[in-house]
């Protein structure tokens, strides 16, 4: 197998402790027919180079809204959102998003053309984009499927293509919004392992939304726990190394997210 399109960490700038992304007292919401609805409020955290930060919380706490703001899809109504010290004002290839829907791929383009698409938009010559796409295809385990079309692929294969396409853009931050939620349990576990392997190869910076505590602990280096609506930061927790400590962390997050269930069984 060929090496990465870029060597591990090649698009990094600076040390692991250098903030790539900073949210300073960010609040987000929507205007509805009955007034203003606050999704999340007073959110502050930073994301370092090469870090894997998981956002967890109950449905409706603003996890996806927060990720969308980082992507530049909508602006905070309060606070600051900074990428490399500059305000985020619009979407850009420095923040690539992977959604949970399988149909995020362009159905009229082949696997290789889907993966090469961000590079083609950036002006990369077609032949060079194809070579990079084929290297990424091998790295995500889809050798032989370069000319296949999305409708011929399984859910897990489509997700691999979506991840490869995002990585092809060489983003500062890879954003993932519950990308494995629609997969069956076995495929989901395989994709979690695959994502960690790709992170070891490329050293990308990851901001990942999930409702699954086990997934957050399995994939994250840190976990940010949001309170129920409106979402506020309840805790920011480091993920330990040992299985015993990780089990204890899962239990702690469970207590934070479901205190009424804990009280019921006390």
Automatic annotation (TrEMBL):
Keywords assigned by UniProt, alphabetized: ATP-binding, Nucleotide-binding, Transport
Domain ABC transporter: 21-255
Gene3D superfamilies in the record: P-loop containing nucleotide triphosphate hydrolases
Signal peptide: none
PROSITE patterns per record: ABC_TRANSPORTER_1, ABC_TRANSPORTER_2
Residue ranges of the TM segments: none
Domain of life: Bacteria
MF (Gene Ontology): ATP binding; ATP hydrolysis activity
InterPro entries, alphabetized: AAA+_ATPase (IPR003593), ABC_transporter-like_ATP-bd (IPR003439), ABC_transporter-like_CS (IPR017871), ABC_transporter_ATP-bind (IPR050166), P-loop_NTPase (IPR027417)
Nucleus recorded as keyword: no
Protein family per UniProt: Belongs to the ABC transporter superfamily.
Protein name: ABC transporter ATP-binding protein
The species this protein was found in: Rhodovarius crocodyli
């Amino acid at each position: 197998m060929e090496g990465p399109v870029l060597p591990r960490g090649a698009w990094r700038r600076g040390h692991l402790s250098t903030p790539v992304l900073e949210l300073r007292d960010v609040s987000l919401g929507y205007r509805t027919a009955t007034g203003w609805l606050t999704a999340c409020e007073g959110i502050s955290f930073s994301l370092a180079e090469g870090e894997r930060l998981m956002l967890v919380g109950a449905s409706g706490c603003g996890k996806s809204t927060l990720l969308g703001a980082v992507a530049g899809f909508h602006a905070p109504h309060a606070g600051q959102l900074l990428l490399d010290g500059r305000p985020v004002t619009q979407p850009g290839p420095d923040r690539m998003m992977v959604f949970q829907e399988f149909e995020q791929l362009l159905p009229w383009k082949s696997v290789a053309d889907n993966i090469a698409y961000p590079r083609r938009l950036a002006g990369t010559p077609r032949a060079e984009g194809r070579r990079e796409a084929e290297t990424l295809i091998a790295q995500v385990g889809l050798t032989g499927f370069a000319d296949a079309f999305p409708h011929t692929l399984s859910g897990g294969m489509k997700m691999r293509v979506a991840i490869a396409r995002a990585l092809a853009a060489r983003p500062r931050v890879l954003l993932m919004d519950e990308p494995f939620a629609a997969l069956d349990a076995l495929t989901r576990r395989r994709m979690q392992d695959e994502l960690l392997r790709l992170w070891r190869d490329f050293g990308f910076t990851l901001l990942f939304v999930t409702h699954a505590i086990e997934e957050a602990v399995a994939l994250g280096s840190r976990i940010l726990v949001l309170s129920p609506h409106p979402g506020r930061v309840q805790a920011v927790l480091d993920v330990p190394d040992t299985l015993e400590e990780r089990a204890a962390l899962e239990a702690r997050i469970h207590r934070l997210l479901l205190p009424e269930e804990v009280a019921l069984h006390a």
